[in-house]
Amino acid sequence: MTMTPQELQAALEAIIYAADEPATLDQIANALGVEKTEARAALDLLTAAYQTDDRGIEVRKVAGGWKFYTKPQHHDVVRKFIKSLQPPLRLTMPALETLAVIAYKQPVTAPEINEIRGVNVGGVIKTLLEKRLITTAGRKEVIGRPILYRTSKQFLMRFGLSDLEELPSLKEFEQLAQAALGSDAGIAPIEPEAEALATEPEASAVSTAGEGSESGEAEEIRASGETNDLGELGEDAPASSGEPAENSRAASAGNSDKT
């Protein structure tokens, strides 16, 4: 059944509203039963319709798809509302610095991050995995075959980026993090356990090589590519840094409040 332009716009709006993750052009076109060119034209019209001042949300292209987000001018009031519901996601300075290294050097291994930062980042990497800001990306083909890490789709969504090419300069990264993580200070205080982990000496070459020692089944999982399952990491997943669990609704540039 052919839809009128008004019906197409309404259906498109409903799809983007209902999607948990950014809806891609292919997904939208298939759901609407139209060509991608027609779906893209409808997206452009819908995006323009939400740019008026009487709208508190907008349709934004992010992480390869389209999703509703609150407008920047309303972030302060939205942040205040979200914080009244539950604590926002916050990162310690070591976690933020490690995330920056991974974002700009990806894919990168833990030993390489250790070398750049000058401290052991095992616990911090575990925290970033738990918060789904990074993910594994296979293993590097060197002695010990250490795990490679890269930023995740959640990272792009959290920071409001369409792709990695939109990453700001290193100087702008902390300011972007302050806005995206929904914290007034932007940086959480370093907890005693996390601080101890950040000051541990680097692992020896023997320990690094030991990271590659795991069961044949686990190694096959690694060789197959990316995983977000911390259980699969086995001994490769270091002890937790003790940071709080992720609050996926706390980004100031986050998802629109669907009420």
CATH level 1 name of the largest domain: Mainly Alpha
What is the end-to-end distance? 30 Å
What CATH calls the topology of the largest domain is Arc Repressor Mutant, subunit A
What is the multimeric organization of the chains shown? single chain
Strand order of the largest sheet: 3-5-4
CATH architecture of the largest domain: Orthogonal Bundle
The CATH H-level superfamily of the largest domain is Winged helix-like DNA-binding domain superfamily/Winged helix DNA-binding domain
The structure class reads: mainly alpha
Count up the domains: 2
Number of strands: 5
| Helix count from the secondary structure assignment | 13
Tell me the β content: 5-15%
Helix percentage range: 40-55%
What does the main sheet amount to?
3 strands, antiparallel
> Roughly how many Å is the radius of gyration?
21 Å
Low-confidence stretches: 183-259
The geometry reads as globular
